[in-house]
């Protein structure tokens, strides 16, 4: 695997590959890699001739400075995981490389997609995220790019951006990889204290138990049950729990909705914030 820090060098390496008609797969990450990231790399390797990962902790998408400063960084372990999974290139630019001058966000109205859930609780987050994803897709110009369903709203917004900006890249959504006890893998899980880590499976567990379309409960009643079962641990506070239409991300209030629905949640622990989602079908 070759590690590259400069856009120009990346372009020098990738242009001949693309021009020769080979397919390329791209997996953008913020590092502190785990099995969730590895699953995206493996999928890309199985579907493309060449796989490129990026590691860049994007300051523009952090709405809290403390969260940015405390974001876990483990470059050596990250390289090992990428090599083990047969990644060909890793792009690790500096902040100056990605944002020469001042940070300017992509001029694209995300509309209602960015007004709900994460968009509501993390103002500016999606504008920053979409800016870096756009820049990285322009730079790498991949055949396909791989994203986790773990960040369900992010995936929907990326699909929207790619369509609006007319990018010719296949966006591939990949299933959430979980720990054996059901907790969705996340770089932020290492910021849970031991007590929180032990109780954290309640987040997925309560959604799986209550957030099912075949339930005779109303959506409001389900919300109450999910929140109650998570908050009774006294370790977590639920920021939101919504059942949303999968494409538009708009919350639904009854089961009459025939479209694909998704239950989405954000939970605060003492030093971190976790998100998860499941299909209700
Ligand atoms: P991050 O490094 O957190 O920005 O994530 C990089 C990519 O990995 C994003 O597309 C995430 O959705 C994806 N990802 C993170 N955690 C998981 C997981 N547990 N399962 C599958 N994909 C994941």
Description of the molecule:
The structure is a single chain. This protein has 281 residues and is α/β, with parallel strands linked by helices. The protein has helices at residues 7-19, 35-47, 65-69, 75-84, 95-98, 118-121, 125-140, 152-164, 194-199, 202-210, 219-231, and strands spanning 2-4, 24-29, 50-55, 89-91, 144-148, 170-174, 237-245, 261-268, 273-279. The strands form 2 sheets. A 6-stranded parallel beta sheet has the order 1-4-3-2-5-6, with helices on both faces. A 3-stranded antiparallel beta sheet has the order 7-8-9, with helices on one face. The longest helix is centred in the middle third of the chain and has 16 residues, at 125-140. The mean pLDDT is 96. Bound molecules: adenosine monophosphate. Adenosine monophosphate binds at residues 29-30, 36-37, 39-40, 147-148, 150-151, 174, 176-177, 184-187.
Kindly list the characteristics that best describe this protein.
single chain, 281 residues, alpha/beta, 6-stranded parallel beta sheet, 3-stranded antiparallel beta sheet, 11 helices, binds adenosine monophosphate
Low-pLDDT windows of residues = none
Mean pLDDT: 96
Which structural category do the helix and sheet elements fall into?
A: alpha/beta
**DSSP summary, beta strand count:** 9
Q: Which sheet architecture does the biggest sheet show?
A: 6 strands, parallel
Helical residue percent?
Answer: 25-40%
- The largest sheet has its strands arranged as 1-4-3-2-5-6
């Amino acid at each position: 695997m070759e590690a590259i820090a400069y856009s120009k060098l990346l372009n020098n390496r990738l242009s001949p590959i693309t021009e020769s008609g080979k397919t390329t797969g791209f997996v953008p990450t913020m590092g502190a890699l785990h099995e969730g990231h590895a699953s995206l790399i493996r999928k890309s390797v199985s579907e493309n001739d060449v796989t490129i990962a990026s590691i860049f902790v994007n300051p523009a998408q952090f709405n809290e400075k403390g969260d940015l400063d405390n974001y876990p960084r483990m470059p050596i372990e990250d390289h090992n995981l990428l090599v083990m999974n047969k990644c060909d290139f890793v792009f690790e630019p500096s902040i100056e490389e990605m944002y020469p001058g001042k940070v300017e966000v992509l001029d694209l109205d995300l509309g209602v997609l960015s007004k709900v859930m994460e968009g509501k609780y993390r103002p500016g987050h999606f504008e920053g995220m979409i800016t870096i994803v756009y820049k990285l897709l322009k730079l790498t110009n991949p055949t396909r790019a791989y994203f986790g369903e773990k960040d369900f709203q992010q995936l929907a917004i990326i699909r929207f951006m790619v369509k609006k900006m007319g990018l010719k890249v296949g966006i591939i959504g990949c299933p959430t990889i979980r720990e054996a006890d059901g907790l969705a893998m996340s770089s932020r899980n290492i910021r849970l204290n031991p007590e929180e880590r032990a109780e954290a499976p309640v987040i997925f567990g309560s959604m799986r138990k209550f957030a099912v379309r075949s339930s005779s409960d109303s959506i409001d009643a389900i919300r109450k049950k999910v929140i109650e079962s998570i908050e009774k641990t006294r370790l977590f506070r639920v920021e939101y729990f919504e059942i949303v239409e999968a494409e538009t991300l708009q919350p639904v209030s009854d089961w009459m909705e025939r479209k694909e629905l998704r239950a989405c949640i954000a939970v605060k622990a003492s030093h971190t914030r976790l998100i998860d989602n499941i299909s209700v079908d």
